[in-house]
Amino acid sequence: MKLTSILAGAALALGLAGAATAQDKTKVGFVFVGPIGDGGWTYEHNQGRLAVEEEFGDAVETIYQENVPEGADAERVLTQMALSGADLIFTTSFGYMDPTINVAQKFPDVKFEHATGYKRADNVGTYSARFYEGRAVQGHIAGKLTESNIIGYIASFPIPEVIRGINSAYIHAKKANPDVEFKVIWAYTWFDPAKEADAAQALIEQGADVILQHTDSTAPQAAAEKAGDVYTFGQASDMAEYAPMPRVSSIIDNWAPYYIDRVQAVIDGTWESDDTWDGIGPGMVGIGEISSAVPEDVKAEALALKEAIANGDYHPFTGPLNKQDGTAWLAEGETADDGTLLGMNFYVEGLTGSIPQ
Amino acid sequence: MDLSAINPVILIASLMAAATPILLAATGELVVEKSGVLNLGVEGMMITGAICGFAAAVETGSPALGFVAAALGGAALSLIFGFLTQVLMSNQVATGLALTLFGLGLSALIGQGYVGIKPPGTAALNLGPLSDIPVIGRILFSHDLMVYLSLALVAGVWAGLRYTRAGLVLRAVGENHDAAHALGYKVVRLRLAAIAFGGAMAGLGGAYLSLVRVPQWTEGMTAGAGWIALAIVVFASWKAPRVLLGAYLFGGVAVLQLNLQAAGLAVPVEVLSMSPYLVTILVLVIMSADRSRAAINAPASLGRRFHASS
Q: Which stretches are transmembrane (chain A) (predicted)?
C-alpha cells in the first residue's frame, strides 16, 4: 500500500516523461476500507481488481490504497489518486460517499464509482449488491439450525444496508422457526478483529448458537470455532477455511464482472453515471457452498429459496409484514419497493431492541 | 431487556481473558516506573510483540515459541528506548511517544505477509476435575496457561518489589537515583534491565491478543490497549495488587458493555462503547483527587534524567 503510493508519487514527479505512456493506459484506482487480506469485504473487492488486471492486461493499470479511514482522510487519498492520473476510481465503502462527491466535483474528467451509497453526480455512479437476498437464505438456514432459538447478529453501523440484512435474516429465520429470537450487537466498526471476537464471545455466552456477522474479519468465525458447537456464515467472502464448521455457508460478493464492465465502458468512452443494484440472479451475490454440517433437507430448502430469489419468483420482503411498532408495512402479497429498501431505517415486527440513532 | 441472560460466572471468566493483555503490559510498566523511568511506548511494544509472536507461532507452529518471540521482540524494541534515554539521555516522554509510533509502523511492515492467516491454536489448560467444580471451576480453572502466568507474574512482581533485596534496590533507584548511585548501585544498568522487562511483558500482552484472544494479525490491533495499561499503573498508585484490580475492572466493563447490548439494555450504544474509557477517566480523577497522597506514591525520580556526573 505504502509502496504503491510512493511509486504513484514518483511517477507524478517524473512528470511529462510519464505522461506520454500514461495516455494509452487506462488507470483504475481502488480505495479500500480494510486490508486486502481481511478475508472478507475488501478481499473480494481486491479480487475484482485482480480480475480487471487479468482481463485487460497491459491496457489497464490499477492502483489501490488499503485501510483508508471513512471521512475526511478519504478525500486526501481520493485527491491524490485523481492527481496521479486515475481515469476511474472505485470507492468501496459506504462512508466514502461524501468524500467521493466532494472530490468528484473538483475532477470532472475523472469517473467515480461509489459502492453501497445513494448520492450520484455526472461523473459519480453508484453500485451495490442485494445482500439482503443472501441474508434471506442465511436466515432460513440459521432458523433451522438453532437449538437455543437464539441467533446472534454482529452489526456494524446503523445504515440501511445493515438494517436490511438484519430484517431479511430475521423474517426468514422466523419463517423457518417461529420461536427464534435475535440478539444484535452494534460494533460500530467494519473491521476490528478484537472487538468482533469479543462481540461474538458475548453473544455465545448469552446462548446464541448461530452467529451472523456484518463485519469484515474472520475473528467471529475463530471465536465460534473455539466455542465448538456454534454455527457461522462467511461474510462478503467465502471464508472457506472455517468450513464445514463453524462456517456452514456464506454470502460471497462477486464484483469482478461489474468492474470489468465499467472499466470497458471507460475505455470505450461510453461510461455514464448510473445506479446498479444486482442480486443473486445476475451473480453479484453468491451463496457459498452449504457445508455438510447442514442437514440435507435444510440444504435443499435453502437452495430452493435461493433459486426462487434468483429467477424473480420470490422477493425476500413480501407481505404481510409489519414494522416493529406494529404498524402495517406491506399488505399480503405486496413486495417492498427499492426506494423503501434503500432508505430502510426500521426493524420489522418481532425484532427486539432499537436501532441506534 | 433480559438481564438474566447474562451469566455472572461466565462474565467473570471472560473478563479475566479480556483483561490479560493490559494486565501483562501494566505489570511490566509498573516495574519500569518503579525504577524511575517513564516509558510511554507501551502501545508500540505491545503491537510489536503481537506481530513477533504471531509470526513466530505461524512459522514454527508452536504458540509457546510465539510467546517467547513476543517477549524478545518487545524487549528488543524497549532497549532502543533504553539506549536513547539512559545512555544518550534523551527526553523520556518524547522518546516513549516516538517508540509507540515506531512500533506501530514496524509491526505493520513485519505483518505484511501475515494478514489473514490462522495461527496455531492455544489450548485451554486441562485441569481435569478442578474445572468441573461449579462456579469456581469455570472462573478459576478453565483458562489457558497465559492467564495463570499473568497472575503469577503479578504476584511475583509484588513479592519481588516488596520482599527481595533486588526489589529494594530497584525502588531505591526509582526514589532517589543520586543516593542509589552514591551507594554504589548501577543505576543505568538496573534501569535498562527494568525497561527490558517492561518491554517483554508488553510483548507478551500483545501476543496474547494476536494468538489467543482474536486470534489473527491485523495492523493496529492493540487499538489503544497500551495507553490503558499506562493509565492503570497510575490508577494503581504503583502497587501491584491494584494493577490487577484496575486491569480486571477495565476488562470487566469492556466485556459487560457488549453483554448488556446483547441483552438489549435500553442505553445508547455509543454510551456503552465509551463506558470502559469513561470508567478509567473517572477512577483516575478520584485516585488523584488527593494530590498529596498521589505524589507520595509516585516514585520520586520518575521521568528524571540521570547522569553519574551530575
A: none
